[in-house]
Amino acid sequence: MPYALLRPILFTMDPEQAHETTLELLEKAHRAKLLGFAYGKQALPTTCMGVQLLNPVGLAAGLDKNGAYIDALSELGFGFLEVGTVTPMPQAGNDKPRLFRLKEHGAIINRMGFNNDGVDQMIANIERAKYNGVLGINIGKNAITPVENALDDYIYCLERVYPYASYITVNISSPNTKNLRDLQSADALAHLLDGIKNCQMQLANSYGFYVPIALKIAPDLDLEQVDVIANTVIDFEIDGLIATNTTLSRTGVEGHRHVNEAGGLSGRPVNHQSTLILSEFANRLAGKVDLIGVGGIDDGELAVKKLQAGAVAIQLYSGLIYKGPALIGDCVQSIASQYA
């Protein structure tokens, strides 16, 4: 069934239930061998962090938290996939309801709280998958881990996912885990990245191959914070920066009945701020660190604008909820038309 016909049915459901139902339907379509026929591969070779992508349009973390639907998602036309955020131990996340649609604005508010089945279960899921494309794995810390001990959780996940990942994303920007964004401050970030970089190099020596590290940051940064993060990323030779996560701002959705719900806002209203932060980082990093643009992309034109702001590749999530898988091809084709 085309997504345009399916969406009104899904939107009658609770958003989290609709999310789970969509993934289950996607898996059934995959097993029936319907997805490749409907979407197929979208080739536009791109290199990011030294990794060759099929095309520059990827899946953002958060949609497949446990890596349970990798094979099905890989047939929608993405150039790469990112799964997670995963934590060392399983955790339930925040209390429900924790996911809200703002349909009039093409937006979503979530306070999921890194709900996932833990890193060991994710690895088991990845081992079962047949996908052999580019797979990013997004790692975080458990909610019960004090922020001053966060490095322990990141190292725990890094060591376990390393042999399965094309790249690994360190998520320090979710607004839904208490104090997590404190890790974006100067001293905390330096301590974290020093530990992660040392671990990465040890793992590279042990396995005989290098897996790039990306850092995912928030859109809610002032220019002084951008300076600090940019300098620290360069100092520790981090391979990539993903800009951005969701925002705590409610600009653009004022007056909506869900405006006062706690959590991060994603979708079209975050696009401007997200792209602005992306551009600020591009100016400071000057090509030394590859940038992935994410936030508010719901058509091909906005995908192109992320690349014009300095991104090498982009990622989609909320736009898929409103536009469906056809958005992937739209973005690929718009980028190809602009840069052919």
TrEMBL record:
The active site is at S174 (nucleophile). The gene is pyrD. It catalyses: (S)-dihydroorotate + a quinone = orotate + a quinol. GO terms for molecular function: dihydroorotate dehydrogenase (quinone) activity. PROSITE patterns: DHODEHASE_1 (PS00911), DHODEHASE_2 (PS00912). Its EC number is 1.3.5.2. Monomer. HAMAP family: DHO_dh_type2. Its cofactor is FMN. It comes from the Bacteria. It is a peripheral membrane protein. Belongs to the dihydroorotate dehydrogenase family. Type 2 subfamily. It comes from Moraxella pluranimalium. One of its GO terms (biological process) is 'de novo' pyrimidine nucleobase biosynthetic process. One of its GO terms (cellular component) is cytoplasm. Catalyzes the conversion of dihydroorotate to orotate with quinone as electron acceptor. PANTHER family: DIHYDROOROTATE DEHYDROGENASE (QUINONE), MITOCHONDRIAL (PTHR48109:SF4), DIHYDROOROTATE DEHYDROGENASE (QUINONE), MITOCHONDRIAL-RELATED (PTHR48109). This is Dihydroorotate dehydrogenase (quinone).
